[in-house]
Amino acid sequence: MMSSGSSQIWRRRSGISWIRAGLIIFILVFIWLQLNFLSFSGSSPQYSDINDSNAAILSMVPAVLHKFLSSKPKNATHTRTNGSYNNLLYTSTPNISDIKRSIAQYNLQQVVHNENNFEPLQNDSIVIVVQIHDRIPYLRHLIVSLAQAPGISQTLLVFSHDYYDEEMNSLVQSIDFCKVIQIFYPYSIQTHPNEFPGEDPGDCPRDMKKEQALIKKCNNALYPDVYGHYREAKFTQTKHHWWWKANRVFNQLEVTRNHTGLIVLLEEDHYVGEDFIHMLRLMERTYKESCRHCNVLSLGTYLKTYNYYADSKKVEISPWVSSKHNMGMAFNRSTWTQIVDCAAYFCKYDDYNWDWSLQHVSQNCLRQKLHAMVARAPRVFHIGECGVHHKKNNCKSTSVISKVQQVLKSAKRHLYPDYLILTYSTVLKKTKLRKGNGGWGDRRDHKLCIGMTLG
Ligand SMILES: *[C@@H]1O[C@H](CO)[C@@H](O)[C@H](O)[C@H]1NC(C)=O
Ligand SMILES: *[C@@H]1O[C@H](CO)[C@@H](O)[C@H](O)[C@H]1NC(C)=O
Ligand SMILES: *[C@@H]1O[C@H](CO)[C@@H](O)[C@H](O)[C@H]1NC(C)=O
Ligand SMILES: *[C@@H]1O[C@H](CO)[C@@H](O)[C@H](O)[C@H]1NC(C)=O
Ligand SMILES: *[C@@H]1O[C@H](CO)[C@@H](O)[C@H](O)[C@H]1NC(C)=O
Ligand SMILES: *[C@@H]1O[C@H](CO)[C@@H](O)[C@H](O)[C@H]1NC(C)=O
Ligand SMILES: *[C@@H]1O[C@H](CO)[C@@H](O)[C@H](O)[C@H]1NC(C)=O
């Protein structure tokens, strides 16, 4: 009795000391990791020391790609400085009917640039679709990042514009590292300045009360959004454009309409890590083998700190959540076919965000909800807004770009993983949407969106 009791005490003590030793080792390892691998994380004090001058940013870009970062000297410059209208200035700022004509021509001709310099699109090639508006400085950096990705030469880059601009066109057409095609959203605000989908002078002002609007008989008096506000044209364009380009790429564009491989969706202010194509391939293989219910890949998550040492191999399997998994999304035709069958859910949901609308589709219409495989260490970054460490007024676009460059540089030896480690995320709280974010109550928007649906 005694001996067995004392031996139990001894065992317990020994157990406690083991735990203690384990704890100490754990803490030491943790500190060591902090010192060695997290030093470039966003919360570290070093972040504020990052040199984000243009010269510093340029020094991180290979010299052969500098051409994408500088605007070409314009021959028409001397005419521009003089305010009077003459022929050269006239051609550099075309009027709306000229723009409409150019857009129609681009969309009809469907010229694939560099088609003869690279092999034709295979059925398993990656197609990268970039939705762009007018922020050229960001687009320049996205192009530079794409240029540095091994495998880019086998892809097709589709630029989907909703703003016609000659400088943008010549930048896109100067891309020489893969096949490129441009498509133009035909219902832009730029080409419809005084009529729907732009702002019609007869439309109800955003904040007008419905009773007043009914008396005034403004165009959309009957259809304020779920929060009682009337349509604001500039906030509706992105969702329309998103829906249009996806429909066009999957069902209309000659070069992609039969494509069965992955389509990756990017935006003008994204920035890709150099191994993003490698990751996509690896994730594509892995989800076909190990996650039969996955139907979306996501290359980006929004993080404040990064740990490529620990996470570069890790992918998380998770229900698709609009606010977390909307960056660098990739899926193929089979997923798109299911989404487009739910067009009414996308087009009539009172939310002007395409991603929240897609979540609505997933939760309320899809037979098989969207389920994502997500890279834990992002391969797509959002450079279009200032980081959390900046107040709006002292925020420079270069600071985020510079930070991303530093993050990727420090991560370099952890990129290109040979295999992936799957982790599973259980969604703690139900991310069920009650009502949308509004901005999409106008029946004309519903109709336009439905009208652009192909399939
Ligand atoms: C930032 O980097 C550039 C180029 O590398 C250099 O010329 C400049 O002096 C640096 N500025 C600071 C504040 O370190
Ligand atoms: C500028 O115009 C001249 C003649 O008008 C032409 O020879 C030259 O190549 C042009 N330069 C550029 C950069 O377009
Ligand atoms: C623009 O050019 C016209 C002649 O073509 C001249 O009369 C005018 O002063 C110039 N304006 C400016 C701002 O240089
Ligand atoms: C636009 O240019 C065309 C010629 O290309 C011209 O006929 C038309 O009147 C112009 N429209 C406006 C609004 O300036
Ligand atoms: C892709 O093409 C290859 C060879 O051309 C063919 O064997 C394969 O079945 C095709 N895959 C699909 C999904 O069409
Ligand atoms: C796509 O498929 C359609 C019908 O199957 C066919 O008529 C068309 O030629 C194909 N297009 C391409 C580019 O392969
Ligand atoms: C398309 O994606 C689904 C998952 O959504 C996958 O099961 C299927 O194999 C993929 N098709 C092709 C041709 O890769």
UniProtKB/TrEMBL annotation:
> Which EC number applies?
2.4.1.143
Q: Tell me which SUPFAM superfamilies the record gives.
A: Nucleotide-diphospho-sugar transferases
Q: Name one GO biological process term.
A: protein N-linked glycosylation
* Enzyme class, UniProt record, top EC level: transferase
Q: What catalytic reaction does the record list?
A: an N(4)-{beta-D-GlcNAc-(1->2)-alpha-D-Man-(1->3)-[alpha-D-Man-(1->6)]-beta-D-Man-(1->4)-beta-D-GlcNAc-(1->4)-beta-D-GlcNAc}-L-asparaginyl-[protein] + UDP-N-acetyl-alpha-D-glucosamine = N(4)-{beta-D-GlcNAc-(1->2)-alpha-D-Man-(1->3)-[beta-D-GlcNAc-(1->2)-alpha-D-Man-(1->6)]-beta-D-Man-(1->4)-beta-D-GlcNAc-(1->4)-beta-D-GlcNAc}-L-asparaginyl-[protein] + UDP + H(+)
Task: Give the matching Pfam families.
Answer: MGAT2
The record's subcellular location field reads: Golgi apparatus membrane
Transmembrane stretches, start-end: 21-40
Q: Which cofactor does it need?
A: Mn(2+)
Q: Which UniProt keywords apply?
A: Disulfide bond, Glycoprotein, Glycosyltransferase, Golgi apparatus, Manganese, Membrane, Metal-binding, Signal-anchor, Transferase, Transmembrane, Transmembrane helix
Residues bound to substrate: Q131, I132, H133, D134, R135, D162, Q237, T238, K239, H240, H241
Give the Gene Ontology MF terms in alphabetical order: alpha-1,6-mannosylglycoprotein 2-beta-N-acetylglucosaminyltransferase activity; metal ion binding
The protein's name in its UniProt record: Alpha-1,6-mannosyl-glycoprotein 2-beta-N-acetylglucosaminyltransferase
